[in-house]
Amino acid sequence: MTLTGNMRIDGDRLWDTLMEMAQIGPGIRGGNNRQTLTDEDAEGRELFQKWCKDAGLEMGLDQMGTMFARREGTDPGALPVYVGSHLDTQPTGGKYDGVLGVLAGLEIIRSLNDLNIKTKHPIVVTNFTNEEGTRFAPPMLASGVFAGTHTLEWAYAREDAEGKNVGEELDRIGWKGEEEVGARKMHAFFELHIEQGPILEAEKKDIGVVTHGQGLTWLQITLTGKESHTGSTPMPMRKNAGLGMARITELVDKVAWENAPHAVGAIGHCDVYPNSRNIIPGKVVFTIDIRHPDKTVLDGMDAKVRAGAKEIADTIGLGIEIEEVGHFDPVKFDEGCVSAVREAAIRLGYTHRDLVSGAGHDACWINRVAPTSMVMCPCVDGLSHNEDEDISPEWARAGADVLFHAVLETAEIVS
Ligand code: HGY
Ligand code: MN
Ligand code: MN
To answer: How large is the average pLDDT for residues 399-414?
Structure first.
């Protein structure tokens, strides 16, 4: 049986499944707050597992809590084609970031069952733990362990703002598996994700054929000054850590603009101590997020931000500690997998364009251990990591159809 343009997923079922998952870990404005290894994450995992079992899949779980749902192929010795993303969300996240990729993988299985299609290679739907990195830095933590970038022990030791660590929280929610992380070998990996940027919608394209992913560096800065009275401490005597953070925020923005049009930089997380209205901050801890598609430029931005931050701290008389808490180099996805995505879009009659992913994804790490590529669909105003994140059912359907064909072509239809 060959792949034809009329072989498509059930877009209504996919949409209903997305809406049902969105009920778990509701946000405050219609989005989601299903942060990794929380009770809400556990509830979402339970629902996903139920759906997978209902679809006749065999469940697997590794030591980082990454979930694998396997549909057998006709050749037991053939390496599986993996398809998935992440179910964890930002604290003020949308309903589709990550979730679309996991549930579109499930929809592929449901559609194969409906069509009674058998494939040579098994197909495994995957939910990677802690893609967001918002509760436990760095992002893409479990896929990073899977790709051999982080050790399991290092990952288990990552702590959240309350001092809880990954290993303990996996135990607490009962989702720490036995499987060695990364022991599974993949024939290929595909991930469907919303663009989280404005290009596809602006150009009225249904599909992003993702050829590359930009690189990322997260630097955690600790500035130490001196707490003192905001009213009675003369300006020349102040050691204001908050002032240092403000100037470094300006520096990061400036370095990004100096490397326009592709560079980006911001500070999204900060803790001010003691955070009292009338005490000059004695300590601030914040995370710089800089990104660029070119490694040399990204490394140059990193060096410039480090040097500038030290200069700012010295000028104000602050102590400074700089710790890299996240990094991955820009990635170039597998050309065979990228072609499978592009040809699927053409076969199905969807408009498409090549794209560099601005956000990081599990696929960026998995690309190190298996042929990998991504499919992207538009999102309204390019907005994401915001509860107003939105997509249309048509965009979800188009992305899942293309994912369906790319996975089927790679898994080889037998009957
Ligand atoms: O930060 C990222 O790019 C991803 O959303 N975790
Ligand atoms: Mn994501
Ligand atoms: Mn995200």
So the answer is: 98
Q: Report the distance separating Cα 9 and Cα 23, nearest Å.
A: 23
Residue 228 CA to ligand 2 center (angstroms) comes to 42
- Residue 385 Cα: closest atom of ligand 1: 5
Rounded to whole angstroms, the Cα distance separating 415 from 413 reads: 6
Instruction: Say how many C-beta atoms besides its own lie within 10 A of residue 229's C-beta.
Output: 10
- Nearest residue to 242 via CA among 301, 313, 308, 324: 313
- Give the whole-angstrom CA distance, residue 399 versus residue 48: 20
**Does residue 136 come out as left (phi exceeding 0), alpha (psi in the -120 to 50 range) or beta?**
beta
Task: Give 90 Cα–ligand 1 centroid separation in angstroms.
Answer: 9
DSSP characters over 285-302: EEEEEEEESSHHHHHHHH
- In Å, how far are 3, 34, 39, 257, 362 from 167, measured between CA atoms? 43, 18, 15, 39, 20
CA distances from 137 to 132, 156, 325 (A): 8, 11, 7
State the Cα–Cα distance between residues 392 and 65, nearest whole angstrom.
Answer: 31
Mean pLDDT of 281-292: 98
Whether residue 84 has its Cβ less than 6 Å from ligand 1: no
Atom index in ligand 1 nearest the CA of residue 289 equals 1
One DSSP character per residue, 200-238 reads HHHTT-SEEEEEEE-EEEEEEEEEE---EETTTS-GGG-
At position 57, the amino acid (one-letter code) is L
pLDDT in tens, 232-284: 999 999 999 999 999 999 999 999 999 999 999 999 999 999 999 999 999 99
Closest-CA residue to 48 (of 98, 94, 7, 91) = 98
Distance CA 183, CA 80 (A): 13
Tell me, what's the pLDDT at 173? 98
Check pocket membership of 326 for ligand 1, CB cut-off 6 A. Answer: no
| 6 touches 384 (CB < 8 A) | no
- The pTM (predicted TM-score) of the whole model is 0.94
Which of 135, 298, 361, 376 has most ligand 1 atoms within 8 Å of CB, for mutation? 361
Ligand 1 site, residue 57, Cβ cutoff 6 A: no
Distance between CA atoms of residues 17 and 167, nearest Å: 30
DSSP conformational letter for 380: G
Residue 7 Ramachandran class (φ > 0 left, ψ -120 to 50 alpha, else beta): beta
The DSSP letter of residue 266 is E
